[in-house]
Amino acid sequence: MTKTALVLRHVHFEDLGSFASPIRQAGYDIRYADVGDSSFPPGDPLAPDLLVVLGGPIGVYEEKIYPFLAPERAFVAARLEARRPLLGVCLGAQLIAAASGARVFPSGVKEIGFKAVSLTAAGRESPLRHLEGASPLHWHGDTYSLPAGATNLASSDLIEQQAFSFGREVLGLQFHPEADCGDRFERWLVGHAAELASARIDVAALRQGARVNGPLLHKASERMIAEWLANLEALT
């Protein structure tokens, strides 16, 4: 019987990227639910075999400006409470943190670009170990306090909290190992042009960073998510 993966997407070009193939290979049928859909977030949060919550250029604390964040946070909270398989990337990780009662707040810096993360001892024992030697994409201005009961897996030189887990079922990634750094990376640059200009990011350097780091990152992220999914199977 085919398993289902529901993916909550906030910006169309910020999709599963390199995660898509391993998820399909693990036997999941992928279905996207997009912000702006009349039923977002859709249905029963416990129904999908896997829930993935992707990134977006807003803060989880901006519920008055973006009202969909309140039901989405409740959707994630129900999933988290049941400890059903849950993966969050960037905004998705921050929603998991907020749903667990942790604080999410502006970090005071724009961390945008390709650089390695430093894994904790727990991170080196986790699927994130595949990222050692690779430089994932960072694209955020918010951070979070480590949720109670969660394990910190990674940090960077600017931001202490870069990844966390609740057991094997829940993984939050502040950075973007999934980013497609091929030709489709241009969509990131155009889609976030205003933010890049405001933060005075060198677009040409960022584009070059994607060319240099993309091939290794793609392979490392595929191995990482494949192992995480295999660990989920071991729980059943």
Number of domains: 1
Taking the alpha carbons of the first and last residues, their distance comes to 14 Å
Strand order across the largest sheet: 2-1-3-4-10-9-8-6
Which spans of ≥5 residues are poorly predicted at pLDDT below 50? Answer: none
Q: CATH fold name, please? A: Rossmann fold
Proportion in β-strands: 15-25%
Structural class: alpha/beta
Sum up the overall morphology in one term: globular
Strand count, sense and barrel status of the largest sheet are: 8 strands, mixed
What is the element string, with H for helices and E for strands? EHEEHEHEEHEEEEHHH
Radius of gyration: 16 Å
CATH architecture: 3-Layer(aba) Sandwich
CATH class: Alpha Beta
Helix residue percentage:
25-40%
Count of β-strands: 10
Plain-language structure description:
With 236 residues, this protein is α/β, with parallel strands linked by helices. The protein has a single domain (3-235), classed as Class I glutamine amidotransferase (GATase) domain (Rossmann fold). 33% of the residues lie in helices and 24% in strands. Helix 2 (69-82) packs across helix 3 (91-99). The chain is globular. The mean pLDDT is 96.
Task: Annotate the secondary structure layout.
Elements: E1 3-9, H1 20-25, E2 28-34, E3 50-53, H2 69-82, E4 86-89, H3 91-99, E5 104-114, E6 118-119, H4 121-124, E7 137-144, E8 151-155, E9 163-166, E10 170-173, H5 185-191, H6 193-198, H7 203-235
Parallel strand pairs: 1-2, 1-3, 3-4, 4-10
Antiparallel strand pairs: 5-7, 6-8, 8-9, 9-10
Helix pairs in contact: 2-3
